[in-house]
Design goal:
This is Trk system potassium uptake protein. By secondary structure, this protein is mainly α. About 65% of the residues lie in helices and about 0% in strands. The protein has a domain of about 250 residues. Strands 1-2 form a two-stranded antiparallel ribbon. A hairpin with a 2-residue loop joins strand 1 and strand 2.
């Protein structure tokens, strides 16, 4: 195995991430000190420990810069997410007495920007923990975006090669470009977070809540410092701000970076933004009409559209904020919400799900295949963004979609075997593998949490969150026996 896998780069990257997490714990110390809460000592000790271990690991694993092969990149990507999740779970387990299972679940949910929680009576926890949960979203969000822009296209995962950057023209040399890509994207990411926090504050949020909610919004995460999720902030019209930023951050960040640098036609070249916005508006109008005209729901048309659009955009973007328990709206809206979970956001954003471009290309492939069935001699190539899509890319997309749906089916059946009712099992499976957060039903719905689930079900959901975030194939590749053969 030593000839196949390079461990030093993996240890080096893990050390840097551990060191970074230790630094991110320091603002949590400040938050508790400002609120005069004694829990600051927990984060201070964990911060010093993480910084020390991370620095020692990174320094002892330094190596000469050299291209990392695709083979190593698969392992590096998966192991980094696992190791960072374990380290990030320590404040939950050591500091606040959660079981190892619950701590890992909460940490994985945060870093994958899923937003599913096992915590109840959230308001009773200190500011440090609220800020830490938001920071996990924020760290995971920028990590996911950089991975989607710079790494996944080079690994040719699930059709992501469509978004291969010119600066990363070979799979063997994609890492040198990550620094430039990450820097440009991080500037935009920070800027959006600051603007979002400022607008939240204008709507009446406290400074602390504005910062925490901005981190959760821009990362399309969904953790909130209240059991009622986003409901406490609706009166100040913060939900309107949230709709805009959830939608904006569900679109490709690379296009946003290009637009800021003067390329105003960037959004025209990629069909994803237009398709995503059309899906969001169409679903909102249909569900709002149903809710406004339902005899048992006394909601006016204007209030219904605003309420429905917030929740539709929240689910479609994978954020998972909630202002209402949409379980009470009936079977038809619930079906639409399940569909929105699967559709997800766009490639190059922090959102997950099947992704807009895959659904779009699958639809075009079906039309092309239908035309060829009617006229066998007609050549009808599948085109995306004005360019023909290669057979290899089409195959990659179809394999991904099959694996995604098959994994969802297995996950749902596994949850049902733990004793969960069908609605809870199916919606929890969809919500975790699509990294959305809230499902349907009384247990995991918008008004519930994942706390009542048995530990086995929590571990299933934790694994599903990782699989969904890493686009499935990256994990399946390292689990295959051929990966480990010399």
């Amino acid at each position: 195995m030593s000839s196949q896998i390079k461990l030093r780069p993996i240890l080096y990257a893990t050390g840097l991430m551990t060191f970074g997490l230790g630094l991110f714990m320091l603002p949590c110390v400040v938050a508790d000190l400002a609120a005069e809460r004694g829990e600051w000592r927990i984060f201070f000790l964990l911060s010093i420990t993480s910084i020390t271990i991370g620095a020692v690991t990174a320094l002892s694993s330094q190596h000469d810069k050299m291209p990392i092969r695709t083979h190593d990149a698969f392992l590096l990507t998966v192991l980094l997410w696992v190791f960072v999740t374990i380290i990030a779970s320590t404040p939950f387990s050591i500091g606040f007495g959660m079981s190892f299972t619950d701590a890992i679940f909460e940490s994985m949910s945060g870093l994958t920007t899923t937003g599913a929680t096992i915590m109840t009576n959230i308001e009773s926890y200190p500011p440090s923990l609220h800020l830490w949960r938001a920071m996990l979203h924020w760290i995971g969000g920028i990590g996911i975006i950089v991975m989607a822009i710079a790494i996944m296209p080079s690994l040719r995962v699930g059709g992501m090669q469509l978004f291969h950057l010119e600066s990363s023209d070979t799979t063997e040399k994609f890492l040198p470009s990550i620094g430039e890509i990450a820097l440009q994207t991080t500037y935009v990411y920070i800027g959006l977070t600051v603007i979002c926090a400022g607008l939240y504050h204008i709507t009446g949020m406290s400074n602390f809540d504005a910062i925490v909610m901005a981190m959760s919004t821009v990362s399309t995460g969904g953790f909130a410092p209240s059991d009622a999720s986003f409901a406490p902030y609706v009166e100040g019209h913060a939900d309107i701000v949230a709709i805009f930023f959830m939608a904006l951050c569900s679109l490709p960040f690379a296009l946003l970076v290009l637009t800021i640098h003067g390329d105003w036609k960037a959004y025209r070249r990629d069909p994803q933004p237009l398709v995503w916005i059309c899906m969001a508006i169409t679903a909102s109008v249909v569900v709002a009409f149903f809710v406004a005209t339902h005899p048992n729901l006394e909601i006016g048309p204007e209030g219904a559209f605003r309420m429905v659009m917030f929740n539709i955009v929240s689910i479609l973007s994978g954020t998972g904020f909630g202002t209402e328990d949409f379980n009470q709206w009936g079977a038809f809206p619930a079906t639409i919400f399940i569909l929105m979970m699967f559709l997800g956001g766009t490639a190059g954003s922090a959102s997950c799900g099947l992704k807009t471009f895959r659904v779009h290309i699958a639809w075009k492939t079906m039309i092309s295949y239908t035309k060829q069935m009617i006229r066998p001699n007609q050549i009808s190539p599948v085109r995306y963004a004005g360019k023909p899509v290669s057979e290899a890319t089409l195959q990659s997309i179809m394999i991904f979609m099959f694996l995604f749906l098959a994994t969802f089916a297995v996950h749902a059946c596994g949850l049902a075997l733990t004793g969960l009712d069908p609605l809870t099992a199916i919606s929890a499976a969809a919500a975790t593998i699509c990294n959305v957060g809230p499902g349907l039903g009384e247990i995991v719905g918008p008004a519930g949490t994942y706390q009542p689930l048995p530990d086995v079900a929590k571990w299933m959901c934790t694994i599903a969150m990782l699989l969904g975030r890493l686009e499935l194939i990256a994990v399946f590749v390292i689990l295959s026996p051929s990966f480990w053969r010399n």
